[in-house]
């Protein structure tokens, strides 16, 4: 037996999203149906709508969510009906070459539900990042459900499901920021501000926020930025060097993902420092750097997929820090909206008016 619920779909490239009825099948082996309580609006949902990720319309959007497990399929033992979970888009397989080497955060064969959710006429939906949580209920692989403390506010911990985790992890996991480090973060949207919060949690003493938008820089201070640089007015490389005793930051995180911001990150870092690319570039972008500078400056140039997180390790831990008041996830929520307001939320995101809009069910 299947269920019919309301969900937000993107039917064609660039067209406004619409709320419609979707059909959620009963969970098969290894699957779970989750009643969604909250789902953040992420830039990646907009990328899907604009055709930037694939052409497999219609998409069921939304992927930054928390909810309650309602039903589980055969063989599911890690979660049970009633569990409060944050959904993740990298359910690790445990058997690929990355998993077998003990590096499951790089898993090369992550799992999604095998069955498809559909429209009422049977048209199969492509769920965003294998989740599709702008829906009252969604079907996922059980491994995509990570149990966290149910005392937490769904709208807040749901954000760990994507952008906030990516940013926190870019600093804490990929960048390996540690106490006393100097860190610069270029681009202070949801991801960049989370990187700032992660750097602060990890003990960085100098945290420079760089953005072209003054409002974002004001927000960055709330998350722990010790200095801000508006790169529309000031050369960010010079500014970061000046703020770090003339040498550059130990870790520079590019949370925009454009050739010019990557170049800034590359040159704003100290010798033997680390560059972390967490912003996602588009296919036509290229960069040219003097190879001697790549060699001569030493250190590490890294990319961060989903903050190199391991949901089973990181979601419960970060939820605990949130409940202890040490990680202000609430501060990322600019507004709570309904399912019918996702299109408006995209417009606000596009204009930089929000850090996160979160759909509440
Ligand atoms: N690696 C991952 O796993 C992962 C996960 C989620 C999101 N992302 C990516 O991270 C990036 C940021 O996402 P977001 O949700 O924070 O987006 P956002 O739109 O909220 O924030 C982007 C910020 O960058 C600033 N900016 C734009 N151009 C700039 C420039 N040239 N110099 C300095 N600042 C500039 C904007 O003013 C804005 O504050 C996106 O590319 C997104 O796709 C990556
Ligand atoms: Zn694997
Ligand atoms: Zn996302």
TrEMBL record:
Keyword set includes Ribosomal protein: no
Organism: Micromonospora pattaloongensis
TM regions (residue ranges): none
Key word tRNA-binding present: no
Cross-referenced Gene3D superfamilies: Medium-chain alcohol dehydrogenases, catalytic domain, NAD(P)-binding Rossmann-like Domain
Source organism superkingdom: Bacteria
Protein name: S-(Hydroxymethyl)mycothiol dehydrogenase
Lineage: Bacteria, Bacillati, Actinomycetota, Actinomycetes, Micromonosporales
Record-linked Pfam families: ADH_N, ADH_zinc_N
InterPro entries membership: ADH-like_C, ADH-like_N, ADH_Zn_CS, ER, GroES-like_sf, MycoS_dep_FDH, NAD(P)-bd_dom_sf
Cofactor(s) in the UniProt record: Zn(2+)
């Amino acid at each position: 037996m299947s269920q019919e619920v309301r969900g937000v779909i993107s039917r064609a490239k660039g067209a406004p999203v619409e709320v419609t009825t979707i059909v959620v099948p009963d969970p098969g082996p290894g699957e779970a149906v989750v009643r969604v309580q909250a789902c953040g609006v992420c830039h990646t949902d907009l990328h899907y709508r604009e055709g930037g990720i694939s052409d497999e319309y219609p998409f069921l959007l939304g992927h930054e969510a928390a909810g309650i497990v309602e039903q589980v399929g055969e063989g599911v033992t890690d979660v049970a009906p009633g569990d409060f979970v944050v959904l993740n888009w990298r359910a690790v397989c445990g058997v690929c070459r990355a998993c077998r080497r003990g590096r499951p955060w790089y898993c090369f064969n992550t799992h999604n539900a095998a069955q498809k959710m559909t429209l009422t006429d049977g048209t199969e939906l492509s769920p965003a990042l294998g989740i599709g949580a702008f829906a009252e209920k969604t079907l996922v692989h059980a491994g995509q459900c990570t149990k966290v403390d149910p005392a937490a506010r769904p709208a807040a911990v749901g954000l760990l499901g994507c952008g906030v985790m990516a940013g926190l992890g870019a600093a804490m996991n990929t960048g390996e920021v540690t106490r006393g480090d100097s860190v610069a973060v270029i681009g202070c949207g949801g991801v960049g501000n989370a990187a700032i919060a992660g750097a602060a949690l990890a003990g960085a003493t100098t945290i420079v926020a760089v953005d072209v938008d003054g409002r974002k820089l004001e927000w960055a201070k709330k998350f722990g930025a010790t200095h801000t640089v508006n790169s529309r007015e000031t050369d960010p490389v010079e500014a970061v060097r000046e703020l770090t005793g003339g040498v550059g930051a130990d870790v520079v995180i590019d949370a925009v993902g454009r050739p010019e911001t990557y170049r800034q990150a590359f040159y704003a870092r100290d010798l033997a420092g680390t560059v972390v690319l967490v912003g996602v570039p588009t296919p036509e972008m290229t960069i040219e750097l003097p190879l001697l500078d790549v060699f001569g400056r030493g250190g590490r140039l890294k990319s961060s997929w989903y903050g190199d997180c391991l949901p089973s390790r990181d979601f419960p831990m970060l939820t605990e820090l949130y409940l202890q008041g040490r990680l202000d996830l609430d501060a990322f929520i600019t507004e709570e909206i309904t399912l019918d307001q996702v299109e408006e939320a995209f417009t606000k995101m596009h204009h930089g008016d929000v850090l996160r809009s979160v759909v509440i069910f």
